[in-house]
């Protein structure tokens, strides 16, 4: 959420036009964005209405500062997201870290999202925090199966393990990383478990062997005992299961027997 101090400071900066844009960035436009998220603020009137308007102003300001790098931005409730190409991720992160109106000096997480139906199937999401302005921002980029994303370790030392986690679980390659190896899965693990085409059961079975007295890997075997399901149901179906049934459409209960009435 954008703090009031940052918003008022931004208004004064825009009014006096003291911010100098990067000359190389102002000459060109960003590449075409593959993202389909809406770029306008949430029109619904809610408790986030004031914050949404402020974030939309701030997102427009960042886009004017970096027209060469920022492809688009979106605002949903109190969340601002910037969309950039992989080649622009380092300039944008450095701008957000060092600019006086940003000061996003902490990287809280780097996560991945898998969309197998897309040509660029992976989204790489950077979550940034500004302690000075008490605000957060999200930066998204994309990568294909064999593409690489520049490593952010040279800008944020905390990105080291986050990028290793994204490589381990999704297979997203970060070029320039000093030690890009698995961090969560076991040695010799095959595949990347958070991809949507990875089977839920995995490829191998890990168990403790009593005879060998050690943990062993074995090919996965899913065995199931034979079960015979009874096709007949003791319940009587009412209707075809699609139309609503009124109580008067049900069969009336039979009258009680004389012996039951005496009781």
TrEMBL record:
Residues 82-203 form the NADH:ubiquinone oxidoreductase 30kDa subunit domain. Gene3D superfamilies: NADH:ubiquinone oxidoreductase, 30kDa subunit. One of its GO terms (molecular function) is oxidoreductase activity, acting on NAD(P)H. SUPFAM superfamilies: Nqo5-like. It is found in: Mitochondrion. It holds the Pfam family Complex1_30kDa. One of its GO terms (cellular component) is mitochondrion. Residues 237-263 are annotated as: Disordered. Keywords: NAD, Translocase, Transport, Ubiquinone. It catalyses: a ubiquinone + NADH + 5 H(+)(in) = a ubiquinol + NAD(+) + 4 H(+)(out). Belongs to the complex I 30 kDa subunit family. This is NADH:ubiquinone oxidoreductase 30kDa subunit domain-containing protein. It comes from Moniliophthora roreri (Frosty pod rot fungus).
